[in-house]
Amino acid sequence: MLSLKPAPVTTDLLRRIPVFAQIPEAKLEWMVAQGKAVRVPPGGLLRAEGDPANCVFVLLEGICRMTQRSGNQDILLVQHDRPTLIGEVPLLMGVPYFWASGRAVTTCHILELDADTFWQFMGLCPTVAKSVLQTMIVRMQEIQVLAQHRERLISLGTLAAGLAHELNNPASAAQRAARELRRVFPLMQTQTLKLTHKCLTDEQREFLIRLQQDAIVQAQNPPTLDSMTQSDCEDQLTDWMDDHNIQNSWQFASTFVNAGLDSDWLDQILTCLNNICLQDVFTWLEATLTVVGLLNTLGHSTERIHQLVGAVQDYSTLDPDDLQLVDIHKGLESTLTILGHKLKRGVTIVRDYAEDLPKVMSHGSELEQVWMNVIDNAIAATLERFNLNTSSTPMSVTPALHTNPVMIPTGWQNRARHFSTTSQPTIWIRTRCEADWVLIEIADNGIGIPPEVQPHIYEPFFTTKGVGKGTGLGLNTSYKIVKRHEGDIRVTSQPGDTCFQIRFPSQC
Asked: Which residues of 254-264 are buried (b: 16+ CB within 10 A; e: fewer)?
């Protein structure tokens, strides 16, 4: 902390602060003697976010701002422009680190009290303790409202970024298909007109109509071929067409094989037409199949866009005050759709959904917020483990900590075996019905939650992420939502195997 030469601290300065106004002179003199007077210049830092919370500050004079890092921005939490007590909330809550930075706006005259002195003074003066706790409650409410608002903005940003990323692929595919259709469709019309002016018998015309219809049907469900088989089939068709003097045979062969057509198709065309206008027929057929393929691409792309928009609507537009029955699986899939851009980094999703899972009574889309927070954390944990765990040194296993005994189902053992053999980031989602409860398990093979951290993960503002990367409200919000729905959330964890078990009353 950058400081100037300190000015003396008097009890009169302390009495300007309401919490110390009625304290006996002797006790204030004791506090002054135990404290450390500092003067911080404008721009000077009292403490940085993430520093150990081992003291409190009495702002005697000056203006001080409290900020919290979010990405590349410093978010203003509060500005103190009158004498007050600063930094007591983390100490009273048992949080080991400051969750905000304090910086002087003007020259600040401060009395710094270490943690032991602060607790002794609280013990000596019960009235101070009561007043400090009341102040802490008010500040906590104000900070939590602000942080929750910021959490919503972050969630909205994550939602928007994910949606934009996911929309880009189908939108680009649809744009390319539309552009290609403008090129191919006139060609197909031209070839159709050419064929109508050919000297063909009625039987041959009927054959071409059936040929087109059959080819379109075949193209809707083409066989799946590996690259080697695909290449062999294309070579076979190319040789056939070269033998019959068909131009652009390599282009036609690729389209025909992709549509599931083989040499038998070509043979029946030759049998019926006897080399009459084969080039025009093949050009017409290739144009037809290309148009069908482009229309399929447009259909798949717009369907994907529709799914993404539906997922966002499920997540954000329902009335939170309206209780209704919700489908757990639909909510999970909507969440996975929204987080698809993160899953594409190499995370595998293993689904083990129960059939006929009962619906759950929920306030709007609140349950999707639970899935979003838990799955998003699981993605981060798995990616962190597999990005960092590059050495051959085995990870040490620490015993899982759990505040309540829990019966682990058989599926857990299967998942554990799966995790022990997989070498890639994996998230395992399992749903089951347990008597009158619906169970949702979300497990991952990430870095795990240390035993000493597990009792604190649902506390507000508690985060193990770096400065500016986490608000510490995600799991706290999830915990509140689960409890509001009369449910239960618990976790077991060790490196490479973390599982959140969430239960809700079922509506059978």
From this structure: bbbbbbbbeee
pLDDT tens digits, 183-236 = 888 888 888 888 887 777 888 888 888 888 888 888 888 777 788 888 899 999
Contact 244, 278 (CB under 8 A): yes
Give the residue among 172, 183, 161, 162 at the shortest CA–CA distance from 301: 172
* Strand 64-70 versus strand 73-80 pairing type: antiparallel
**pTM of the complete model beyond 0.85:** no
CB burial of 426-463 (b: ≥16 within 10 Å; e: otherwise) equals: bbbbbbbeeeeebbbbbbbbbbbbeeeebebbbbbbbb
CB-based contacts of 153, cutoff 8 Å, min separation 6: none
Q: Give every residue of the chain whose pLDDT is below 70, as ranges.
A: 1-6, 71, 139-159, 161-162, 165-166, 311-322, 364, 388-422, 460-473, 507-508
- DSSP, collapsed to helix, strand or coil, labels residue 142 as helix
Rg (CA), the chain: 34
How do the residues of the chain divide into helix, strand and coil, expressed in percent and rounded to 5? 50, 20, 30
Angle between helices 115-124 and 25-34 (to 10 degrees): 170
Distance in angstroms (rounded) separating the CA atoms of residues 368 and 108: 46
Q: pLDDT digit string (tens) for 455-466?
A: 878 776 556 555
Q: Cβ(336)–Cβ(378) under 8 Å?
A: no
Distance CA 311, CA 337 (A): 7
